[in-house]
């Protein structure tokens, strides 16, 4: 990943997607947003701890930075449901009451519309097929990993838009790294096939789990990029739920140019 600055914001882009000029994307840091503590910075989620007008301003700043018409997002519930966003779907909430709850992955081919997943330690994964110009965004915390929402989202892209998994590229956002992903109760929480990913001391490598799930879904190894940045121990660049239980959410955003 490399950093970019625009509209007063700082965000990272995956190197893997640089050749595709029709695609814009960014992993947004907290820098440049208007929210005060405890969500200080570019908080992109409607939460009790922040005012809705701050969030609306932050959403607009982020959409402008990538020259997108607006941001489509859902109420994430650590589930495995995928929303296909077509023409005329009005999933651009401007208040908490307008948020459609129950989806942790979004797929679209619609130009100009940005997709957003909100993160604070969970993984955000950007999937893009340059052949059919289909993009998908996935929110996957450990519960999402257990449900293999990555594999389910790839299947949905295949069914809905004729995507070939071997054409798909995937970028895995900053998230809780193996340095900090401690699961004291892993024997109750994680399936046995995840235990191989323990890196010591009840800490687990969920980046490796995601890479293996993507490969099992048919992606090529060279089409997967991992940011490799831990949200908890990278200063205050990103929001981290494990570091600060009351905090904001940063965004992984992607869209097709108009
Ligand atoms: Zn860490």
Q: How would you sum up the global shape?
A: globular
Bound molecules: zinc ion
Annotation, overall tally of beta strands: 14
Q: What top-tier CATH class fits best? A: Alpha Beta
Number of helices: 5
Strand order of the largest sheet: 1-2-3-14-7-4
Number of domains: 1
Q: Residue share in helices?
A: 10-25%
The CATH architecture can be given as 4-Layer Sandwich
CATH topology group: CNF1/YfiH-like putative cysteine hydrolases
CATH fourth-tier homologous superfamily: CNF1/YfiH-like putative cysteine hydrolases
Uncertain segments: none
Radius of gyration: 17 Å
Q: Give the averaged pLDDT, no decimals.
A: 96
In short:
The chain is an alpha+beta fold and 258 residues long. The chain contains five helices and 14 strands.
Question: How would you describe this protein?
Answer:
This protein has 258 residues and is α+β, with helices and mostly antiparallel strands. The chain has one domain: CNF1/YfiH-like putative cysteine hydrolases (4-Layer Sandwich), CATH 3.60.140. Helix content is 19%, strand content 26%. The model has no long low-confidence stretch (mean pLDDT 96). Zinc ion binds next to loops. The site of zinc ion (ZN) has 6 residues, from loops.
Properties at a glance:
binds zinc ion; six-stranded mixed β-sheet; 14 strands; CNF1/YfiH-like putative cysteine hydrolases; single chain; 5 helices; 258 residues; globular
């Amino acid at each position: 990943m490399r950093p970019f600055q625009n509209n007063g914001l700082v965000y990272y882009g995956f190197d893997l997607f640089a050749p595709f000029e029709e695609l814009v994307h960014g992993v947004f840091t907290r820098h440049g947003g208007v929210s005060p503590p405890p969500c200080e910075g570019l908080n992109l989620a409607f939460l009790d701890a922040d005012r809705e007008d701050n969030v609306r301003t932050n959403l607009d700043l982020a959409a402008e930075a990538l020259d997108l018409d607006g941001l489509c997002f859902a109420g994430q519930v650590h589930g495995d449901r995928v929303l296909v966003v077509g023409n005329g779907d009005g999933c651009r909430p401007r208040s908490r009451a307008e948020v459609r709850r129950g989806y942790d992955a979004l797929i679209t081919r619609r130009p100009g519309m940005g997709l957003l997943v909100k993160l604070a330690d969970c993984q955000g994964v950007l999937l893009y097929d340059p052949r059919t110009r289909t993009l998908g965004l996935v929110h996957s915390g450990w519960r999402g990993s257990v449900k293999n929402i990555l594999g389910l989202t790839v299947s949905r892209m295949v069914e809905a838009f004729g995507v070939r998994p071997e054409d798909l590229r995937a970028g895995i956002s900053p998230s809780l790294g193996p340095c900090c992903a401690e699961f004291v109760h892993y024997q109750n929480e994680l399936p046995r096939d995840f235990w191989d990913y323990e890196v010591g001391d009840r800490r687990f490598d969920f980046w490796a789990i995601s890479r293996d799930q993507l490969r099992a879904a048919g992606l090529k190894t060279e089409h997967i990029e991992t940011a490799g940045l831990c949200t908890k121990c990278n200063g205050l660049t990103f929001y981290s739920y494990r570091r600060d239980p009351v905090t904001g959410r940063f965004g992984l955003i992607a869209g097709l140019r108009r």
